[in-house]
Amino acid sequence: PATGGSLDIIQTLNSLTDTYVFSPNLINQARFGFSRLRVTSVPEEPFTAQQFGIANPLAAEFPGLPTLTVTGLFTLGSSPLADQSSRINAYTFQDTLSVVTGRHRLKLGGEYRRSQVNFYFNAFSRGQLIFPTFANFLLGQSISIIGSGVYDRAFRVNDLSGFIQDHWKVTDRLTLNLGLRFDFFGLPKV
Question: By the 8 A CB rule, do 117 and 151 touch?
């Protein structure tokens, strides 16, 4: 009979495209996109640790009842992993130029992507008491876990790519599709 929690998932997606026709043989398409995925989980806390006579050094910030587990029988209290949130933002800039000349249809372009991941994860902040047996539970003999420290994190990643492609109609019965693409996937930075 553990308590539940709430889980909110909010997603946003925006995209803007501009297509410019210079001539029948020359077209440029530029795109900008932004997306955000926000996930937040909060445990329900109908009881505090203090109401059950349990001392928690983090009670000022996390007053809820610790998770009480009797192995193989039951679990009481809020989830030790339910207090977390993440926001993932992604920005995309793309540009593609299309050129038709003779028997060639050329495309060349590039893309820049920036990703941001911001999150916190307050694992075991209310504590967890694990009782190996029901007898240990009745005697108050448990293994205790409490989490603390800084669980806020933020990562940034920059990716780049570029390409050139030729759709070459050599004859009426032979078309060659040739291309070259380069992708650089950046390392996450704090």
Answer: no
How many CB atoms are located within 10 Å of the residue 126 CB? 28
- Find the DSSP H helices in 68-165: 134-139
Which stretches within 20-173 are classed as H helix? 134-139
125 close to 60: Cβ distance less than 8 angstroms: no
Please report which residue ranges of 74-159 form alpha helices under DSSP H: 134-139
Using CA atoms, how far residue 16 sits from 28, 45, 65, 91, 160, in Å, is 14, 43, 48, 12, 19
Global pTM exceeds 0.85: no
Query: Phi, psi (5° rounding) for residue 51?
Result: -60, -25
| Predicted local distance difference test score (pLDDT) of residue 150 | 64
Beta bridge partners of 99: 26, 106
What is the tens place of the pLDDT at every residue in 76-113?
Answer: 877 777 788 999 999 999 999 999 999 999 999 999 99
Evaluate whether 5 touches 79 at the Cβ level (below 8 Å). Answer: yes
What gap in Å lies between CA 28 and CA 20, rounded to an integer? 5
